[in-house]
Amino acid sequence: MSDSGERKKCSRCRQALPLDSFARNKAMKGGRQAYCRKCSAGYYRQRQAASGRTVREKFPVPRGHKRCPQCKEVKPHSAWERNKATSDGWASYCRECRAERNRESYFRRKYGMTVERRTALLDEQFGICPICLKPGPEHVDHDHETGRVRGVLCFSCNAALGQFRDRPDVMRRAAAYVEGNVWKPKLVAPGVYRLPS
């Protein structure tokens, strides 16, 4: 809003503009910058380009919308998560891009692998779970002792391996049990059982 209809001349473009076209600056005479906002932005971009830096382009965004720097789409605020730490109160990236970035970061942190490597692993398995042979496995399986990635499993198979604590002897007994070969443990000593031969 213009302060009482006063005008000021921009030192760069030499146009007489309303005072609200100039940013406030208590150190300057009259309490306003010497350059208008448009010229200040142009001068800033010019200085950044001279020093070899790039400046993000400004795009017109309608009210209630925001532009995602990753997918470059303008989306309504409903496609964003709230973030009190930012100046506008919204996350820097839209929900989809943020989820993708978090997924990539998770794989890098947890398994030391990229999403591309996970996709290549899935292709090597022909897109199926190597245990139950169902399509569409999503969970990376790794050895908890060494940290080595073994493959990509479906949720159920990955959870089952976790429940069996990656112990092959327990898994073999479970397979025998499911096949109907139930064994009755024989107590040999306190806490020691004889296994069937």
From TrEMBL:
Pfam families: Endonuclease_7 (PF02945). The keyword Nuclease applies. The keyword Plastid does not apply. Keywords: Endonuclease, Hydrolase, Nuclease. Gene3D superfamilies: His-Me finger endonucleases. One of its GO terms (molecular function) is endonuclease activity. This is Endonuclease VII domain-containing protein.
